[in-house]
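Progress note, project year one: complex with flavin-adenine dinucleotide.
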Amino acid sequence: MKVTEHIENAKGETLFSFEIIPPVKGHNIQELYDNIDPLMEFNPPFIDVTTSREEYVYIDRDGLLDKKLTRMRPGTVGICASIKHKYNVDTIPHVLCGGFTKEETEYLLIDCHYLGIQNVMALRGDAMKEEKYFEPTSGGHAYASDLVQQIHKLNCGEYLHEVVERDHCADFCIGVAGYPEKHMEAPSLQTDLKRLKQKVDKGAHYVVTQMFFDNKKYFEFVDAARAAGITVPIIPGIKPVAVKRHLQLLPQVFRIDLPQELIDAVEACKNNKQVRQVGIEWAIEQSRELKQAGVPVLHYYSMGKSDNIKAIAEAVF
Ligand SMILES: Cc1cc2nc3c(=O)[nH]c(=O)nc-3n(C[C@H](O)[C@H](O)[C@H](O)COP(=O)(O)OP(=O)(O)OC[C@H]3O[C@@H](n4cnc5c(N)ncnc54)[C@H](O)[C@@H]3O)c2cc1C
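Model obtained:
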């Protein structure tokens, strides 16, 4: 089922969902299942599976370093298929502009269609680790809005070779990213919202937000998005702080602010076990207020570990 249908069917009840990341190449998928298992009692209608960009690795060949471009966490669509099959739940592959040509994207979408995957999250992707700015892949898209357009066209039976198939159209429900504290490259929140509106105008059906730790930022973002004419569901993304290093890492990587009260609480912790507990309690408070406000879904960034998400879900759902 589509995300929008899940939301409609819930009739105002807030749904629970989460995002997982594929294992590093060579690792067992069982570890992923072990982290999904405890969360299934909260009936997630859908689970997101991220896609990682390719990166350079250096292989030692008799003292000489060989530079190789590789994707360290492949398998997004395969994992979506296996989870869908194992748990009978909808899965949402994240589809990136970066690292993929339009042709490769089309093949990936066709695979998804054949697998009965009805939702995709359309994202630009970040710059590669070695790059300062995002460089579009040759033959690929520069912005998520262009990717949305490709998926929308596919929904209308329009493939890249321009033959219009009429009998077996895909009908993807398309999610896109939104940034309550603006995307790091956007010159202003207002400009970023214009870009978000473009994604919706080109065919996106719902928005999932970047993590935020102050609900006021989400509420203001939703108000501003509505004022800009964006009417689709805006799903809040929640990440519990888990280690002390997150105080530096999260603002640095995602360009988000942490509230002083949270910073103080984390700094007062003697170890990461205590930090994890602070993160859980903060996310519970955030989630309760958002649920009270009637958000359609609470979407959790699990980063592959579920014990803290389970503790939050137990308190909130
Ligand atoms: C919910 C969520 C899930 C994510 N999952 C993944 C994942 O699985 N894998 C991954 O690698 N990353 C993921 N990301 C991170 C995402 O790829 C990065 O934040 C990326 O830098 C931007 O992606 P986007 O889709 O928002 O890009 P876009 O919407 O293309 O926006 C990127 C920037 O370009 C600007 N812009 C947009 N259109 C134009 C235009 N026409 N002209 C000029 N400027 C423009 C925007 O304002 C913004 O600053 C996720 C982010 C979120 C919020």
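The first helix runs from residue 3 to 10.
Residues 50-51, 53, 94, 96, 123-126, 143-145, 177, 183, 185-186, 192, 195, 199, 208, 210, 237 surround flavin-adenine dinucleotide (CB under 6 Å).
No further modelling is planned for this target in the current period.
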